Amino acid sequence: MLGILASATGTAGGVAYIALKGNKEVGWNKICNVYDKFCRYIATSLALSLFATLLLLVLSICSALSKRTP
């Protein structure tokens, strides 16, 4: 589950980067200056996804350590 969540977070980061900077090689323009609300939403969702990834990582480590202790 952690791998899937981390992969989704990375994908969202890639979309956010393309929206912010654009890609001139393939002809994609920046869209954050046109669709400001979209960029705020994707930034919020990326921050929440990063938080969820870190929280799941901490919970997984705690779970693994609790099973090791007698």
TrEMBL record:
Domain Casparian strip membrane protein: 1-54
UniProt key word Zinc: no
UniProt GO cellular component terms: plasma membrane
NCBIfam families: A_tha_TIGR01569
Membrane topology classification: Multi-pass membrane protein
Main location: membrane
Similarity comment text for this entry: Belongs to the Casparian strip membrane proteins (CASP) family.
Taxonomic lineage of the native organism: Eukaryota, Viridiplantae, Streptophyta, Embryophyta, Tracheophyta
Keyword terms of this UniProt record: Cell membrane, Membrane, Transmembrane, Transmembrane helix
Name of the molecule in the record: CASP-like protein
Annotated InterPro entries: CASP/CASPL (IPR006459), CASP_dom (IPR006702), CASPL (IPR044173)
One Pfam short name: CASP_dom
